[in-house]
Specification:
This protein is α/β, with parallel strands linked by helices. It has a single domain, classed as P-loop containing nucleotide triphosphate hydrolases (Rossmann fold). The protein contains 8 helices and 10 strands. The protein has a 6-stranded mixed β-sheet with strand order 6-7-8-3-9-10, sandwiched between helices. The structure holds adenosine-5'-diphosphate (ADP) and magnesium ion.
Length: 281
């Protein structure tokens, strides 16, 4: 059975109660780094709505502030101006309702996949014993790692490590999943398999997903909403509604509709890239 068929199979559906989703709103968010006299203005009055239960992709040139946005939404950093709201409430720091998966693997190398997955809830004393064991095993099976429960991260491929991280995030039952270029660095084949796997997971549990990428094809393939950023000081250039039907298939990327989205996104991004190139010259 392929990974995709597995993710879609009936016995793998809805066995872990992962149904809540929250809305996230950025309201006039600005962020600079450094001292006033040498300040690096990264974000300028950024307002974005991330509707509950939808998959919103943020795409923008490298260095424009995508990870800064992730850190603000995760609550690792505070905006200089403006607010981050979850379900209409201003956030003041990290919380387990918002889970982040980064590009770099954050698995603990000397713990098995299973130990990595149970780490958070166990440390916080929220879940324990058989219930936690059963839940972790079910999640690892769900992400296709049933055979790799007792392996160490180094024994897993890059794609498997990302799936282990997804399981480790999902065990906290977040209402928002934030992914910061999670598939960057994977080879092309693993990357497209991971995109399909991730979509199936999303289409099944309909959490609020915020996915950051610099790849336009990946963005269009995944997104309900595509937020296109400018260069620094970064603002929102445009939000496109991607109306490709779900469940999605890679073949849809060759449709006239997808091509039109791609043309529009690339044009906007290209103009921004040219501006920063002109500054560098
Ligand atoms: P992206 O993820 O889009 O590539 P980042 O959010 O990582 O961009 O960075 C945006 C800009 O902010 C860069 O110019 C980077 O140098 C700067 N930056 C990010 N984090 C910090 C920090 N903690 N201190 C100083 N500058 C930072
Ligand atoms: Mg980044």
């Amino acid at each position: 059975m392929s990974l995709r068929d597995f993710a879609r199979s009936k016995d793998n559906l809805n066995n872990s109660g992962l149904n809540n989703a929250s809305s996230v709103t950025l309201r006039d968010v600005s962020k600079s780094y450094g001292e006033e006299w040498l300040s690096d203005d990264v974000l300028k009055d950024v307002s974005i709505d991330f509707p509950a239960g939808e998959l919103t992709v943020i795409v923008g040139p490298s260095g424009c502030g995508k990870s800064t946005l992730v850190n603000l939404m995760a609550g690792f950093e505070q905006p200089d101006k403006g607010q981050v709201l979850v379900n209409g409430e201003v956030i003041h720091g990290p919380a387990k309702d918002r889970m982040v998966v980064f590009q770099e693997t954050a698995l603990i190398p000397w713990q098995t996949t299973f130990e990595n997955v149970i780490f958070g809830p166990k440390m916080r004393g929220e879940k324990s014993g058989k219930a936690l064991k059963d839940e972790a095993e079910a999640l690892l099976v769900k992400v296709g790692l049933g055979e790799f429960i007792h392996k160490y991260p180094i024994q897993l491929s890059g794609g498997m490590q990302r799936r282990a991280e997804l399981a480790r995030a999902l065990i906290n039952e977040p209402t928002v999943m934030i992914m910061d270029e999670p598939f960057r660095g994977l080879d092309a084949m693993s990357r497209s398999l991971m995109q399909e796997f991730f979509l199936d997971l999303f289409e099944e549990n309909k959490k609020t997903n915020i996915f950051v990428t610099s790849e336009v094809d990946e963005a269009i393939f995944l997104a309900d909403n595509l937020v296109i950023l400018s260069n620094k000081p970064t603002t929102v250039q445009k939000v496109l509604k991607i109306k490709l039907p779900r469940p999605r298939d890679y073949k849809m990327l060759t449709s006239a509709e997808a091509f039109e989205y791609k043309r529009e996104a690339l044009e906007l991004l290209h103009d921004e890239a040219m501006k920063s190139f002109a500054v560098l010259k």
